[in-house]
Design a protein that fits this description.
The complex is a heterodimer of chains A (about 290) and B (about 280). By secondary structure, chain A is an all-alpha fold. In chain A, about 70% of the residues lie in helices and about 0% in strands. The longest helix of chain A is centred in the C-terminal third of the chain and has 34 residues. The two termini of chain A are about 45 Å apart. Chain B folds into 2 domains: about 55 residues; about 220 residues, Orthogonal Bundle (MetI-like fold). Classes of the chains: A mainly alpha (about 290), B mainly alpha (about 280).
């Protein structure tokens, strides 16, 4: 038994996580089947909340918005990160400087980034429209986050701007792990830079690819602050994400039961997507390695 | 290879480097814009929305500093951030020690718990945490916020320390055990003193998370005297009819502490965050 005494060291961590992670999830599951509003008894309502989530267009649309936002952000951010890493890998002189500079926006809070970009996109005196005007491209000026057809993409661009440095840094770490001999051997065979990128670097970067996609997906599925600050979910629900609904049902409304049901839907969504990605991307790693 | 080829290669590389730096500079324009705008008066913003400020106008800062109770909120954020950092590194390192040294089923189960904690968005637990905090009287308290942040950051800390302790030779433990040291003594006198670099990197990461977080303080705090910096920025700038004279100085004041931290520790932050992700 002596060997198990050492696990006493984990007790504080287990208590903290038990009380503020495991128990809340269980409580969430329990509350999601009740009409609990904070006072009085919680009545059982069965699957009512879940039926509402999957039949009302308001919530189905929020699921679609959340998934589309994630798809756009993850795709663009991974591609842009790979692009920057592929360039910076070839330029050791400026690599560390550029890596740090790209990383800088991730030091800022969503709140601040949201405010600054809300003003950049503003139709009045906003930087983007002013810049387009100054470049003689005034006809492209647009109410970027006021138009339902562009608002979600404008927010996605801001999100990518914030975290592309993260993705780049992870890809650069992947590049650093590629043995030099591969590159030299390929050069001796007279390959072009594009061929080396496509047939040597991309396959060998598969593990970094997996990490980037899974991490940014988990981070993006819960998107809350940017739409909360920049658009309040508007215009016309175009940026109303699942987490925005969770906070909305808490604030002032105290619909703890319904908010819990939304949380459970989000948990299942994250688990399913992360599991599927892991499966597909790990299989891809194995295939590319052989 | 002839000299001309390598010279052409060098020229191409210089050109490409310049292009890359220019591209990265464009990415930083919004940050530069934020700083520039904070020094312009309202009239100047309307007259010239893009140009450099004519003079360093400080009126916006004076106004923001007096209205957003900046000093008070910075003190709150610093206090909360330091408490969380301390708790997370202590509790995290303690828990990591057995996980790094034993490979039993219990270790695997605990690692799985940490992995779940790491990948579960806090929106999943935020509703019940509100209910639990209300019942425990933790709403609107520093302690409540510190506990919530500790739980949020602990899984990462455990992973981080487990990896780090795993790279410390176990012979050190064994030698100390021969001298009749208990597990706790081994941890405290042999392992803990070696954790400095890991703790430094982890602390920067936790500080970044806690300082910038918006959701927990938004939901858990109502007393203005306890507001963190991000909540004061939010309350000061508001949601309707953004006023650039308020927005930009508040944005600069809110990000300044972390941007300074980044300037000093950028290499440690970038490599640390990357290593944390790759693990």
């Amino acid at each position: 038994m002596r060997s198990y005494r050492i696990y006493l060291f984990t007790v504080p961590a287990v208590i903290v996580l038990g009380a503020f992670f495991v128990y809340p999830i269980l409580l969430s599951g329990r509350l999601s089947f009740t009409d609990f509003t904070g006072v009085g008894v919680a009545n059982d309502v069965g699957w009512k909340h879940f039926e509402r989530i999957f039949t009302r267009s308001r919530y189905v649309d929020a699921l679609k918005v959340t998934l589309l936002f994630t798809l756009v952000v993850v795709t663009v951010q991974t591609a842009a990160g790979l692009f920057f890493a592929a360039i910076l890998h070839r330029l050791p002189a400026v690599r560390n400087f550029c890596r740090a500079a790209l990383f800088l926006p991730a030091m800022m809070s969503f709140v601040i980034v949201g405010y600054v970009w809300q003003f950049i996109y503003s139709p009045f005196d906003g930087a983007l429209n002013s810049l387009l005007g100054a470049l003689g491209l005034g006809f492209l000026a647009h109410n970027w986050i006021g138009d339902p057809s562009t608002a979600l993409y404008a927010l996605a661009f801001t999100h990518v701007w914030m975290f592309v440095g993260y993705t780049t840094a992870i890809f650069l770490a992947g590049y650093a792990a590629i043995p030099r001999e591969y590159d030299e051997a390929a050069r001796l065979e007279g390959t072009t830079g594009w061929q080396r990128f496509r047939h040597i670097e991309v396959p060998l970067l598969a593990p970094s690819f997996t990490i980037n996609v899974v991490l940014s997906t988990i981070g993006t599925l819960k998107t809350f602050e940017l739409p909360f600050i920049m658009t309040r979910g508007g215009p016309d629900g175009a940026t109303r994400t699942l987490s925005l609904h969770i906070i909305d049902s808490l604030f002032g409304k105290y619909q703890f039961g319904f908010a819990s049901a939304l949380s459970i839907v989000m948990l299942i969504l994250v688990v399913l997507v992360a599991w599927a990605q892991n499966r597909v991307l790990r299989a891809r790693e194995t295939r590319l390695r052989s | 290879m002839s000299a001309s080829v390598s010279r052409r290669g060098r020229l191409g590389r210089t050109l490409l480097s310049t292009l890359a730096v220019a591209l990265v500079a464009v990415m930083l324009l919004p940050v530069l814009y934020m700083v520039m705008m904070s020094f312009k008066s309202g009239a100047e913003i309307v007259r010239d929305p893009l140009g450099l400020p004519e003079a360093l106008y400080l009126g916006n800062y004076a106004n923001a500093l007096s209205k957003m109770s900046y000093a008070r909120s910075v003190a709150n954020s610093v206090g909360i951030t330091l408490s969380v950092t301390l708790l997370v590194s202590l509790v995290g390192a303690l828990a990591a020690y057995p996980l790094a040294r034993r490979t039993t089923g219990l270790s695997r189960a605990l690692v799985l718990l940490m992995a779940l904690g790491l990948s579960t968005p806090n929106f999943v637990t935020i509703t019940p945490i509100y209910v639990i905090f209300r019942d425990l009287g933790l709403l609107d308290t520093y302690l409540g916020l510190v506990l919530a942040f500790t739980a949020l950051n602990l899984p990462l800390a455990v992973f981080f320390y487990t990896g780090f302790i795993g790279s410390i030779p176990i012979e050190l433990d064994e030698a100390a055990k021969l001298d009749n040291c208990s597990d706790l003594q081994v941890f405290w006198h042999v392992i803990r003193p070696l954790l400095g670099p890991a703790t430094a990197t982890l602390s920067l990461f936790v500080m970044l998370n806690v300082w910038n977080d918006f959701t927990y303080p938004l939901l858990l705090l109502t007393d203005e005297d306890k507001f963190t910096v991000m909540i004061s920025v939010y309350r000061f700038v508001g949601n309707h009819n953004l006023s650039p004279e308020d927005l930009f100085p508040a944005a600069v004041l809110g990000s300044l502490p972390l941007l300074l931290l980044f300037l000093i520790f950028q290499r440690r932050i970038v490599t640390g965050v990357t290593a944390g992700a790759v693990k």
